[in-house]
Specification:
By secondary structure, the chain is an alpha/beta fold. It has one domain: TIM Barrel, CATH 3.20.20.370. It has 7 helices and 9 strands; from the N terminus they run βαβαβββαβαβαβααβ. The strands form 2 sheets. Strands 1, 2, 3, 6, 7, 8 and 9 form a 7-stranded parallel beta sheet that branches. α1 packs parallel to α6 and α5 packs parallel to α7. It is globular, with a radius of gyration of 17 Å. The model has no long low-confidence stretch (mean pLDDT about 95).
């Protein structure tokens, strides 16, 4: 393994057939090596079935407690499965989603993260850390094994378009800022302008960049070796 190691991980696997199609396309034709599954989403069973046909794709759990959208500078819920501040409810939902993942995939997740990074706040963080430790897998942004980079994203934190980031030049710039070691590059490829989410047309733009042959050249020029979460297993 080289000194610079990159996992390209797609969020929202299972969100819709169009998102599934975009994720699988970027894995088959591009630089995508992993995906995070939303087990409660409408196309989760379809995504799980496809994962069985793509054994080189790492699949983790994308913990889904809800989604929020920014309107007129304020965040409003699109839906909420449980109150993120209710530790008991969050713990029960986390275990239920892990059980659903096992039922769909027949195995444990290779990594844990969450929709809209809700696991970075308490009490979700402590519960997610406990689950990740028990499973022996990394939790996004909280694992000593790998650092997370979210710079390949086509909107600002408030939802303003930032499409310059979704280009080969943008990808090159993001990778140039990463140091040695293991890194996860987050992404959201997919298709479907009718998705009930604030991040829609940018998904197809991500597919185009991640499948561009130049993306492979950019990764190599930055000195990175592409890999999966299974490669992070500590070795003696």
């Amino acid at each position: 393994m080289s000194g610079r190691f990159l996992i390209v991980n797609a969020d929202d696997f299972g969100l819709s057939p169009g998102v599934n199609r975009g994720i699988l396309e970027t894995h088959e034709r591009g630089i995508l090596t992993a995906a995070s599954l939303m087990v409660r989403a409408p196309a989760a069973a379809e995504a799980a079935a496809a994962a069985h046909d793509h054994p080189r794709l790492s699949v983790g759990l994308h913990l889904d407690l809800g989604e929020w959208i920014c309107r007129d500078g304020a965040w409003e819920p699109v839906y909420q499965r449980v109150d993120p501040g209710d530790a008991a409810a969050v713990g029960a939902e986390l275990q239920a989603q892990l059980a659903c993942f096992r039922s769909l995939l027949g195995r444990e997740p290779t990594h844990l993260d969450s929709h809209q990074h809700v696991h970075l706040g308490e009490p979700v963080l402590s519960l997610a850390l406990e689950a990740a430790d028990r499973l022996g897998v990394p939790l996004r942004s909280r694992s000593p094994l790998i650092r997370y980079c979210g710079g390949f994203y086509g909107q600002s934190d408030g939802g303003t378009p930032h499409h310059a980031a979704l280009s080969i030049g943008g990808l090159r710039g993001v990778l140039a800022e990463l140091g040695p070691g293991h890194h996860e590059l987050g992404c959201h490829p997919g298709y479907g302008d009718d998705l009930p989410t604030m991040y829609r047309k940018e998904r197809a733009m991500e597919v185009a960049v991640l499948c561009d042959p130049a993306a492979v050249e950019v990764v190599a020029a930055a000195g990175f070796e592409l890999g999966s979460f299974e490669d992070l297993t500590p070795r003696d």
